[in-house]
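Backbone-to-sequence.
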């Protein structure tokens, strides 16, 4: 018997299933595996994830934190970013940011209920003696503070989350 879990499953409550299906079909780049009244499920191969959405406005909690995908290479990140830009999904972009104890390049998208998704490339662990890392920013920079777009070319590797 294997000690590893073969696939992760996540279930999110959404306020309107049709809006969520439209968004996630664009974001994931594939159709849902199953759609029923007030329910949709996607089965992603890479990363290995099963994610379902249940329409229930009363249980939507968009401030629980965020979800994310780590990509293997900068090229992978740039491809995902290009695809998300084409679909007008990108809420924010960051390059060389030091947050959540790591140096990363990333972009964010927000689903129709405000759930934040981070797509990121991990460069290295960030140390407290790094002059561009401030402990007080660690919790804030792990999710976008606003939905304003920040262009990649406006950021430098010396900027921290803001």
């Amino acid at each position: 018997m294997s000690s590893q879990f073969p696939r992760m499953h996540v279930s999110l409550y959404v306020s309107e299933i049709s809006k969520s299906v439209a968004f996630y079909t664009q974001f994931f780049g594939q159709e849902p595996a199953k759609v029923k009244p007030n329910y949709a499920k996607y089965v992603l191969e890479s990363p290995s994830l099963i994610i379902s959405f249940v329409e229930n406005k009363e249980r939507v909690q968009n401030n629980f934190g965020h979800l994310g995908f780590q990509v293997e290479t900068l090229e992978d990140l740039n491809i995902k970013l290009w695809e998300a830009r084409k679909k007008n999904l990108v809420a924010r972009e960051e390059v060389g940011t030091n947050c959540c104890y790591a140096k990363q390049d990333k972009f964010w998208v927000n689903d129709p209920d405000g759930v934040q998704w981070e797509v990121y490339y991990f460069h290295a662990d960030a140390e407290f003696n790094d002059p561009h890392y401030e402990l007080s920013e660690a919790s804030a920079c792990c999710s976008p503070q606003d939905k304003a777009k920040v262009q990649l070319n406006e950021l430098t590797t010396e900027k921290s989350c803001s």
